Amino acid sequence: MESDTPLDQAFAAMEAAPESDAARLRFYERLADTELNLLLKTEPTAETLDPEVFEVDGTSFVLVFDTDARLAGFVGRAAPYAALPGRVIAQMLAGQGAGLGLNLDVAPSAYLIPPDAVAWLAETLGHGPEEGAAKPSELFAPSDLPEALLTALDGKLGRAADLARKAYLAAVSYDDGSRGHMLGITGAKDGAEAPLARAVNEALVFSGIEAGALDVVFLSETDPFTARIARVGLRFDLPEPQEPQRAAPAAPGSDPSKPPRLR
Q: Which InterPro entries does the annotation name (predicted)?
């Protein structure tokens, strides 16, 4: 029997605490981060996807499964599909008025996610970080940070292998008199700054902290500021990159700048 997946576990936690906003946010964060198999009518191409659409009480749903075995168990035959992160599928469905049928009939996380929830997820994921102008003046050890945020940061950074080397979280005061917390990231690869900043922003959003802010700076290992933040900051070590695998044709949706279109 197939073991529960991380998505099953997040769904069970949400179901067990229906009044908990934190549990609901953790489920939708997991949904966004999970690679889902989207059931298609025809084989995918690099430009377009043609998903199967099912009507339930007048509402359209596309079907997604968090393992290929679950998709096969539902369909009962070979069927075309596209493996895409949940965030990509949500953003593709934005404005389409369609919901997500998750793991229907094949898993404890079977759930009809309504169109308004999909639209909310797409909008939430679309809110990127903003640039600031204030300059840091003093750094301190971090304090009074919710455990939910630390857990979310640890999870996001843990999935950022090969994008950077380390991160340091510290409290900070700025030259304009404001105070807050800062995450200094070292060893970021070229082009990784934007996805890393979005990941940190999502950790803040999905941790459920209202009106929270967490500043992100990218530092070189030899920057004097790196030594300052390393002395007082909480350190996160990002995973070492895995051995490179043999090159394969790019899968649909693998390039975030060129997502496929739904027919």
A: SseB_N
Instruction: State pTM to two decimals.
Output: 0.76
CATH topology of domain 136-237: GMP Synthetase; Chain A, domain 3 (3.30.300)
Residue with tokens 């070979």: 78
CA dist 235 and 223 (Å) reads 16
Instruction: Give per-residue pLDDT as tens, 222-236.
Output: 999 999 999 999 999
**Residues contacting 1, CB < 8 A, separation 6+:** none
Per the structure block, which two tokens stand in for 205?
């959003």
Place of tokens 């067990």: 16
CA distance 75 to 40: 11
Measure CA of the first residue to CA of the last residue in the chain; give whole Å. 36
Query: What pLDDT score was predicted for residue 250?
Result: 53
Give the three-state DSSP class for 30. Answer: helix
Q: Which 8-state DSSP code applies to residue 15?
A: H
β-sheet bridge partners, residue 121 = none
The secondary structure of residue 235, as a DSSP letter, is E
Hey, where are the domains in the chain? 6-126, 136-237
Q: Which of 18-22, 157-161, 247-251 has the highest mean pLDDT?
A: 18-22
pLDDT reading at 261 higher than 70:
no
CATH class of 6-126: alpha beta
- C-beta separation of 179 from 171 below 8 A: yes
